Amino acid sequence: MQTLVFWAQRLFFLSALTLLCVVLFAFFAPIFINSDDISQRVERIFFERTGLNLAVNGESKVSFFPGVKVSLRDVKLMPNENRVGDVRIPLAARELTVETGLGSLLFGGGGLKVDSVALESPALYVKRIDMLATASS
Length: 137
Fold this sequence. Notes:
This protein is an alpha+beta fold. Helices cover 43% and strands 30% of the residues. It has helices at 2-32, 35-50, 102-107, 131-136, and strands at residues 52-56, 60-63, 69-79, 91-100, 114-124. Strands 1, 2, 3, 4 and 5 form a five-stranded antiparallel sheet that branches.
């Protein structure tokens, strides 16, 4: 019986130690991650997938709870070329949050696996085309 109690205590101690390590990692790891590097990786991914430049005018931060997320404040998607005429920003948002995996964030090299993207307070510019005027021309 003492052997069972001994192993139960060891298992409890090991579980508590593992939980403590996970909690400490979630709180202190964002301090050691270069958020500017992560921001540049997100900007590169948006350019590759949309052909638009992602301009981040605010701060960027990484969080590990409740999931692995990269948050970029005050973002704008802008055309990558100087167009003549109407050059409005097609999309702006107060915050853009990218959910990713821990392995991709820490060991992704230059890339980043994006699981989801969320926008807070988006402003979308849509150009209106008068279909009757273009059809009669």
